[in-house]
């Protein structure tokens, strides 16, 4: 060491201490010659690479380089372990204080507190289960609808008349061998005509249902009946120790996915009311569709009680369940030929244009997050953006399959079936991407992929197909 060469000189004890520290600092910070001995946040061990105090500067060999990489990897996991331990301490400190307070209480208050804690624990278990159990989630759900034999909604279809029982009349035991005279035959036929018409039942008029309205109702049923609506649950609104669940990497994926589905259904309900469910722009708005649109526009996070405004409220799922009934009531009246479904090319153009604009907005949100935040696996908002976009594609995949059925005449006339089928394939391919953890790495990253960029790529492909369809329809 440097201090060893000057130890024999006349120096004070403090001077020796300064020289000793300076020489130690030099050996620890001598560039890449001593890379394995730097005291970084990764806490590399000197013993692993053979770099001990007092060693002379030297170049690292291949073996030492491998040790350095291994130490770096161990350092990363060590950091994660310390982070988890700190998070556990953050949770344990208030719980420990509550436990000490519990021990000071009387027996009655202990019983009351225990009941409250057990009840709260049960609520949290239910909440966690609902956020992780995605009941009836199936990217291939449009396959259950029979679109092959469907006809244009509102178009009258032939209903099979049920055979009617002809009342028995007294008939002669034997028919004469000779035919009656011409006059008698015509009189008998004329007399029997009204009787025969009365005996034949009049077949009720039946029309085709709307696949778009059916899928929209089923998607909302999937959100609020087959699954719990997460965004309005009390524990979701309370957050993680006051922190919004959307700002944490935990328990928020399903809520974002449901909101994405609801955004697509809302857009569809608006188009049904304004254009598709009425003749031109001068006819009356359908009452059931108008009620469905209003119910679907209700706030997504309403619980039984609120602070703004203060007082009891109707929870969000109740409004969405009413929207399901309204959409199915419209389809029921349409089946009885009492409602309107205007399957014109200009209505399809409007519907496609609105969906393209909706997806364009989502792609812009993904682009902003992917370009300005490169936290990799630790971006706590990346999963919200990803699963919202996934929910939109999940819903629009079924709704556009339904539109293919409802507007089959328009698409066949414009020879757009092939383009539409390709668009459906693009949407189905996007639904295969279901990462366990959503990463928002830079586009050229090695170990942290950018799931947002990939999802944005699929969305832009679908949007490009929608624009192509719109351009052909406008010709």
TrEMBL record:
The chain crosses the membrane at residues 76-95, 107-129. It comes from the Bacteria. This is DUF2333 family protein. Residues 160-182 have a biased composition (Low complexity). Residues 156-195 are annotated as: Disordered. Pfam families: DUF2333 (PF10095). Residues 183-195 have a biased composition (Polar residues). The keyword Protease does not apply. Keywords: Membrane, Transmembrane, Transmembrane helix.
């Amino acid at each position: 060491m440097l201090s060893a060469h000057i130890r024999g000189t006349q120096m004070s004890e403090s001077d020796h201490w300064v020289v000793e520290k300076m020489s130690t600092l030099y050996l620890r910070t001598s560039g890449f010659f001593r890379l394995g001995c730097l005291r970084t946040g990764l806490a590399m061990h000197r013993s692993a690479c053979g770099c001990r105090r007092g060693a002379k500067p030297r170049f690292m060999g291949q073996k030492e380089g491998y040790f350095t990489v291994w130490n770096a990897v161990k350092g990363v996991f060590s950091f994660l372990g310390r982070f988890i331990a700190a998070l556990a301490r953050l949770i344990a400190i208030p719980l420990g204080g509550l436990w000490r307070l519990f021990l000071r209480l009387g027996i009655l208050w202990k019983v009351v507190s225990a009941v409250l804690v057990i009840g709260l624990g049960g609520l949290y278990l239910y909440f966690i289960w609902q956020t992780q159990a995605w009941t009836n989630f199936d990217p291939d759900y449009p396959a259950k609808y029979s679109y092959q034999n469907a006809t244009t909604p509102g178009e009258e279809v032939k209903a099979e008349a049920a055979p009617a029982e002809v009342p028995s009349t007294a008939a002669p035991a034997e028919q004469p061998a000779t035919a009656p005279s011409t006059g008698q035959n015509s009189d008998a036929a004329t007399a029997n005509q009204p009787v025969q018409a009365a005996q034949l039942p009049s077949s009720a008029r039946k029309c085709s249902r709307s696949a778009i309205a059916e899928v929209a109702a089923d998607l909302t049923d999937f959100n609020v009946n087959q699954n719990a609506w997460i965004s309005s649950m009390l524990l979701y609104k309370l957050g993680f120790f006051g922190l919004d669940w959307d700002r944490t990497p935990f328990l928020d994926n399903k809520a974002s996915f449901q909101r994405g589905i609801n955004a697509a259904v809302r857009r569809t309900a608006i188009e049904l009311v304004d254009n598709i469910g009425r003749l031109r722009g001068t006819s009356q708005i359908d009452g059931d569709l108008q009620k469905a649109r209003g119910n679907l526009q209700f706030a997504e996070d309403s619980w039984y009680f609120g602070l703004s405004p203060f007082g009891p409220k109707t929870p969000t799922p109740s409004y969405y369940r009413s929207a399901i009934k309204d959409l199915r009531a419209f389809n029921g009246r349409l089946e009885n030929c009492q409602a309107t479904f205007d399957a014109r090319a200009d209505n399809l153009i409007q519907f496609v244009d609105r969906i393209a604009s909706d997806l364009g907005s989502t792609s812009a949100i993904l682009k902003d997050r992917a370009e300005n935040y490169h936290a990799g696996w630790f971006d706590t908002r990346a999963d919200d953006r990803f699963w919202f976009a996934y929910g939109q594609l999940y819903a629009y995949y079924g709704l556009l399959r339904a539109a293919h059925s409802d507007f089959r005449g328009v698409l066949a006339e414009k020879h757009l079936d092939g383009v539409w089928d390709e668009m459906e394939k693009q949407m189905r391919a996007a639904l295969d991407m279901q990462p366990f953890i959503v990463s928002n790495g830079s586009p050229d990253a090695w170990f942290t992929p950018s799931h947002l960029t990939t999802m944005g790529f699929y969305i832009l492909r679908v949007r490009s197909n929608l624009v192509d369809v719109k351009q052909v329809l406008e010709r």
